[in-house]
Amino acid sequence: MTTPSETLRLAAEFPAATHEQWQRLTLGVLRKAGLADEDTPVEAVEELLARRGYDGVTLAPLYTADDPTPFPGPPGLFPYTRGGRATGAVPAGWDVRQRYADPDPKATGEAVRADLENGATSLWLVLGEGGLPPAGLSTALEGVYLDLAAVVLDAGDAAVEAVPAWFALLAERGVPAAEVRGNLGVDPLGWQARTGRRWDGPVDEWARRCAAGFPGLRAMTVDATGYHDAGGSDAQELGCALATGVAYLRDLTAAGLDVPSALGQLEFRYAATADQFATIAKLRAARRLWARVAQECGAPEAGAQRQHAVTSAAMMTARDPWVNMLRTTLACFAAGVGGADAVTVQPFDHSLGLPDGFARRIARNTQSLLVEEANVGRVVDPAGGSWYVERYTEELAQAAWAWFTEIERHGGMGAALESGLIADRLAATWRERADNLAHRRDPLTGVSEFPNLEERLPVRPPAPAAPEGGLPRHRYAQAYEALRDRADAHAATSGDRPAVFLATLGPAAVHNARAGFAANLFAAGGVATVRPPVGDDDPARLAAEFAASGARVVCLCSSDRGYAESAEAVARALAEAGAVRVWLAGRPGSFAGVDDYLYAGCDAVAVLETTLRDLEVA
User: Fold this and answer.
1) pLDDT over threshold 60, residue 354
2) How many helices (H) and strands (E) does the chain have?
3) What is the mean pLDDT of residues 290-316?
């Protein structure tokens, strides 16, 4: 990272801009927007615009060269913040890794061959509970050149069958040990986190075998996506990964491997989300943190972390699933920019069941486009040197290290899982996130915002049930989609979609904005809206329109002036006409006859729960 010693000559023709100027101009904008008053000091601008993340990391509105950040080092050298290899993904792009969880070996084999022929470079096979039977491994890999395609196993406690089957298949096909690439995917602590069940297999033996005879094959995966899916923050995901990795290092060195060899047996798996800069910073921080662990173990030169980024399952929606293509594209871009060695893009229909060929092709081609057409992988650490990204990386690393050391103080990852420390801390973060989702501070396009009540969802065969019993698996859209499911079931049974009557007061120019807001909010719960042909201030006519609509719930929509003039009279008339609840679209006030209010930042999930209950939707 280069720090200029003087103002760049490119800006020589422009007057110098100072931080104080920016503060004054920004404060003026905030005052016009009503976000600051005349008494607000200019120094408060940053605080007013700052955003606090789930890790307690405060994201400032402006970063400059004055913000202190540690030197990240060059790519390929300690502390590996900018990448584990000096050339990054420049020579051939990152590893395009496709995931397979279909229990049918023949169907899996067809998908594998199609993917390898069209851009995929490695295979991630889910085996055992929730995936392919280990006995079907040979069929699924029929026709695959195992000396060319890397294979990553993900078998949980079925590894006792899957790993011997894998070694037997390699021997049967005569694949030279030096040509085998991939990972056995053994992750006992990850399995315990997912299922609550402990598993003790011959991990030491497999690791020694890989280290001694298979230079391109790793034995263990540190899968941190389970902590992300349970609601954890980025720092919590990183801290859990660190604690798990350290536990595995202890086990492997106790089994006779030296530290560099033990480090070489691990690959780390992280969730990549549509929060672009958070994902970039997370991957960079993860490398820096693991380098510190390697340094403390006396092997800094072996501390380059091997990373596999997977687009987040938690962010995927079942409703309006096509929006998932945008989410996964952004997440994939961030994973590539962040320096992941391998990337998996979940198909857009991931939340609906097993993906079809079209969804798999889009997932695969998303990576091909970013690697081959956009050339994202042709630049090493393109975000490096950004004051924002460097500071974000630093603060996220600090938060993750604090969480890691807390886990260690409680006896390490295994003990922290057993005691409930991990579950409790992740649950607290999930409650905060769920509250933000409910209040639409964290919006979900196509779900909590701009839902489409007329959409026809693609039908997919159900995916095998994932192992349960440990940490929960959350999806950000789950509360809204449960409401939509209830409303849809009611519509299918009764023939009529639940509906709310919008009592629009005054002309369209007066009521349209709030009527649109209310319609959008109710649609997020599968509730339609009906409104009179024209806006009207007359209580009797609105009451008659309401009665004719067949609705039981009503929402008043107008301007503040319109409410002051007509809201109470209209609310009274609507109640007399049979309305069981009268909402008002606007900030809470004290209008007689109005039961509750809809406004930006209200608890939309609670509003929709109440509305479905009032409409007698089970």
Assistant:
1) yes
2) 21, 15
3) 98
Q: Determine which of 13-22, 357-366, 421-430 has the lowest per-residue pLDDT on average.
A: 13-22
Give the residue-averaged pLDDT of 448-460.
96
The residue ranges of every structural domain in the chain are 9-49, 95-408, 479-614
- Rounding to the nearest 10 degrees, give the CA dihedral for residues 221, 226, 232, 234: 30
**C-alpha closest to that of 325 among 276, 277, 274:** 274
How does residue 6 score in pLDDT terms, banded at 50, 70 and 90? Answer: low
Q: Cβ(153)–Cβ(183) under 8 Å?
A: yes
For residues 597 and 583, the answer to whether their CB atoms sit within 8 Å is yes
Hey, what amino acid is at 325? M
pLDDT of amino acid 263: 99
Cα–Cα distance for residue pair 563/180, rounded to 1 Å = 72
Q: Is the domain defined by 95-408 classed in CATH 1.10.10.10? A: no
Q: Where on the phi/psi map is residue 282: left (φ > 0), alpha (ψ -120 to 50), or beta?
A: alpha
**What CATH superfamily classification does 479-614 receive?**
Cobalamin-binding domain (3.40.50.280)
CA angle centred on 267, ends 265 and 269, rounded to 5°: 160
Report pLDDT digits (tens) over 539-590: 999 999 999 999 999 999 999 999 999 999 999 999 999 999 999 999 999 9
How many residues comprise the chain? 618
CA distance 324 to 306: 27
Question: Residue 554: beta bridge partners?
Answer: 501, 582
Beta carbons within 8 Å of 291's beta carbon, 6+ residues apart: 78, 79, 80, 81, 300, 303, 304, 305
